[in-house]
Amino acid sequence: MKNIDVRLVQNSYSIEIGSGILNQTGSKLKALGLKDKAVIVTNPIVRKLYGDVLKQSLTAAGFKPITFEVPDGEEYKSLESAGKLYRQLAEYGAERSTPVLALGGGVIGDLTGFVAATYMRGVPLVQLPTTLLSQGDSSIGGKTAVNYGTLKNEIGTFYQPRITISDISTLKTLPGEELTNGLCEIIKHAFIKDEQFFIYLEKNLDLIKSLDDNVLEKIVAKSAQIKASVVESDEKDNGLRNILNFGHTVGHAVESVSNFRVAHGQAVSIGMVAAAKMAAESGIIDSVTVSRLKNLLDKAGLLTKLPQMEVRQLIQAMRYDKKAYGGKIRFVLPRSIGQVFITDDVNPALVEKVLGGML
Fold first, then answer.
1. pTM of whole model > 0.85?
2. Which CATH class is domain 176-357?
3. Scanning 14, 159, 280, 336, which has the fewest C-beta atoms within 10 Å of its C-beta?
């Protein structure tokens, strides 16, 4: 098992990563001083797989758990779903000391985090990510949000969990497309921050896909460590943390224009290739770097071409993105593998040319 400490000015916490550790949740929460009632938020699929294991662990540690279900799907990461959870929490008699546990992937983690942050102005949050995307990325760093219409993550807040427990054995029940979806963020972290990790992924992708325990633990821990180090330097996303948005400017636009029919990881993969191509067209990186990124994404089963959609719609969606500043679209571009920078000085004609060439 690996343990990563996220050291913040306030509300530091640990990320625990290992195989078969979900059944230790109750004892870990008890050790944190939590007790009595506990609320599990999950979706029907994850509940069927892991709901009983978690509930038994909590009961054995003296908790009185209850489970609230949210239907599976990005469209349920909404204010409407948050409102329903508020009502259920109130009816259950949840108090300010009642822990709320997010058991699932990125949608459950974001929605539950938002509800925990805002119900009674904040109740204890526990992240129990069950997907590669959430274990390696979205459950770390305290960003919580819901979508509103076609606007993704526009309503949210920063709220850190008391603990994050990543049981990598849950990855073995993931549909293949969900594992692929999560690989995107793992590759992103390597590309923006650690060339040696990127090389490791290039060499070991087949082992990752075969769900080798040691390799899964290593890549989840390394990805979590990279994100944690960035979050420690810029918890509230005022500067350095923006590098984590590599691929997300175009990616969020693809999600929005497709009405979220394109999965997050697939959309960000397209966005990473687009950003790399913009850097190459600007003479910042060479074509070999673009090819290495594209080849790894292709091998992982991720999209590197745009589905059929209007380029102008994508650009319009980018202008409404929360990363835009002063009316300018902000991009994260690579200087090399392991080094990126943030800029709002990308010629709109170049953006249109690159996206048009990726259709």
1. yes
2. mainly alpha
3. 336
Q: Are 64 and 94 in contact (CB under 8 A)?
A: no
**Rounded CA gap, 73 and 81, in Å?**
11
Per-residue pLDDT tens for 88-107? 999 999 999 999 999 999 99
The ranges assigned to domains in the chain are: 2-173, 176-357
Helix (H), strand (E) at residue 147: strand 143-148
Q: What is the DSSP string of 87-114?
A: HHHHHHT--TT--EEEEESHHHHHHHHH
- Whether the Cβ atoms of residue 112 and residue 146 lie closer than 8 Å to each other: no
Provide CATH code, domain 2-173: 3.40.50.1970
Cα–Cα nearest to 2, from 201, 223, 190: 223
| Element spanning 334, H or E | strand 331-336
Which two tokens mark 329? 């679209």
Confirm if 287 and 295 have CB atoms less than 8 A apart: no
Confidence of residue 349 (pLDDT cuts 50, 70, 90): very high
- What is the reported pLDDT for 249? 95
3-state secondary structure of 33: coil
Tell me if 292 sits within 8 A of 286, measured CB to CB. Answer: no
What pLDDT, in 10s, does the model give residues 219-269?
999 999 999 999 999 898 888 889 999 999 999 999 989 988 999 999 999
Euclidean distance between CA atoms 296 and 301, whole angstroms: 9
Starting from the edge strand earliest in sequence, which strands make up the sheet with 64-69, in order?
2-6, 13-18, 163-167, 125-129, 100-104, 37-42, 64-69
- State CA 60 to chain mean position distance: 31
> What would the pLDDT profile of 301-317 be if each residue is shown by its tens digit?
999 999 999 999 999 99
Of the candidates 54, 62, 67, 56, the one whose C-alpha atom is nearest the C-alpha of residue 36 is 62
Name 16's bridge partners: 3, 165
Closest CA to 74 of 264, 248, 309, 266: 264
